Structures
1.
Amino acid sequence: MEMKIEFPGNKKVDAIYNGFRISTDQPAFGGGDGTAPAPFDLFLASLGTCAGIYVLGFCQQRGLPTEGIELKQSHEFDPVRRMISKVNLEISVPPSFPEKYRDALIKSASLCAVKKHMEQPPAFNIFTSVSENAEV
């Protein structure tokens, strides 16, 4: 599948993928309008939501209620490298959640495909081309 990236104005950058438009914008302090999450925010959200889908699937497969389950994601920042050095993901469960499933819930969240791709990142091939159909 191919993803198309468009520039709708100012600091906005949208991705069109699989029938969806995924909008991003920079915050006002970064010169944007703050109308959508920044691209890096979507990256961070993809980690939490990916883990969340695995937690949800684990519970659904076992008929466990998901009411009261919450994932809380935080990160630690390395000021020298100016990058995130650690992502923390806490799975908060209600007291009624069976204790025998808590470790399995962690293992399930660890199966997240986004996390696995970060652990073994793909190679990047970035290049330019000249479009024959481009408007001038």
Note: The chain has two domains: 1-36, 38-119.
2.
Amino acid sequence: MAVSTNVNAPKPSTGLSAELGKRFRSNIQTYTIILALIAIWILFAVLTNGAFFTAQNVSNLFRQMTVTSFLAIGMVFVIVTGNIDLSVGKLAGFVSVVAAYFQANVWYQMIPDQPLIAAILSVIIGVGVGVLFGVLQGYIIAFLNVPAFIVTLGGMFVLNGLILLVTQGKTIPANQPYFSEIAQGYLPPIAGWIIAAIVVVFLFWNMFRSRQSRARHGFELSNLGLELIVTIFFSLLVIGYVYWVNQYRGVQTPVLLLAITAMIMAYISNNTRFGRYAYAIGGNREAARLSGINIRRSIFLIFILMGLLSGIAGIVLASYVGYGTTAAGQGYELDAIASAILGGTSTLGGVGTVFGALIGSLIMSSLTTGLQMLNVAPAWQYLVKGGVLVLAVYADVYFKKNR
């Protein structure tokens, strides 16, 4: 008697311990940087007698990481394709200077009684400047075949000159009402709890939706208990974060903007053709070309995206600092690249995640904050950051070679 089989039936899930081992082996680099972050936090908490974990310091820590994080998210897409962008720091700085200039010298005279409209117009112009510069660099790189390293290095020098031209060597105030709220504002505590509840519901909904999708297509299901543990863990992190920052002044506006941006970029990287093409190009450019992927168009769009995120970072920078200065954006490109690499983005291309870039950015920000609290000299801070970055690159090469 013939026995019928359902080829579309989902494969049974594995045991909890087996699933844990499998996940750890396949994501060992990700778990390593998470453990490194936890170790850094514990070390600074001990050395500062707990001051590192005060509500105010945690709030400031996450606020300070936002500018670097916006740049690091875009840098993931750039590095994944095997390129680099050395101009993002100065582009963010130039956008901050332009936004400050319009706030102080244009809108203040044209519409002095409309601070909200002035803030909105400054944001639009600032982001537009970032996108236009991304279009220019992307076109030269993608369609004129000039190496990204050279184009963006030249762009960094050009932007530095533009900053000096706009500022005329002076500091431009950008602390007008509404505009300053972009990076210095806080949400009411009740709003923070509402957002936390929405995020927790979304995490559980997404988990069950993903399981249903895998079952429908006949893929092996992960252990339900493990997925519940992971989802509960991230839910507790969100709840704990909201509780902790509410002890100070509430969830920070730039952190909320960063979270929204990160979720959008993570969705793009994992669930869209644009994102899959980026990883395919970095993994094997020739194979991607033979598969029919328009490599030039993809790289062009990625640099436009990088310009967009640099524009957002510049607006947040101007609002956070409250001024447009001649040194605006100095060194942010190095922090962004370091954050992406620390987060697991491979310098060889084809590997990297938005979530990892955020962890890397948090590590960089934690190092800076902790060392400053310990009154460590700037020279030693640079040495520590450089050493951490070299170790991260070595780990990337080591893990990729073993795989």
Note: Residues 1-9 have pLDDT under 50 and may be disordered.
3.
Amino acid sequence: MKKSLIALLTACLLISCGTLTNAKTAEVKIMKEKVYYTQPKEYLVIPNATHMEMYYKPEYVTQAVDKLTEFYGKNI
């Protein structure tokens, strides 16, 4: 993501990933370093899920949607 676009992230933020994905490292870096001024923010890790499985496997989709509903319902 371009630095100028990251600067626009000032609203609440929920980043999610599965434990079986390589993207986790990049997501943690963005969460901790790039959007430090964004509040509130949370990081959701879904055990045993890959990135793609989080799009179609009901057990992972349900976890993500439940957390999204809770998080944004509380913060928007």
Note: Residues 8-75 form one domain.
4.
Amino acid sequence: MKRFNVWLATKVTDGVATMWCAYIFAGIALISLPKALQSGDSIVIVSWIAQTFLQLVLLSIIMVGQKVQSKSVEDTINETHTASLAEFELAKEARKDAHVELEQLHKISQDMHKLMKEVEAKLAR
């Protein structure tokens, strides 16, 4: 049952979060506009605007906007992740290079110590 509920909620959300749905909702809301205007009652007209038109139409428009913003955030996250991975690879390469250089310096240091001992031995004679 849980999978069905998730599937249904996803389908409804995907359908409502479109501009086509906003246009359909606007059309549905406009059907009752003439009766609201004919009433001449300002409360009925304001209620039609607030409860019928705005709620129906803005629901879809806001969902479309959220989807666009979410996509933008997702793109930024993916770009940041890709850049972070590239920087991590550069850091790993730099660490590898530093390790090689350290080994070379260690070898040079050993050679210098060896030469210094040889010079000391020659001077001691």
Note: DSSP finds four helices and no strands in the chain.
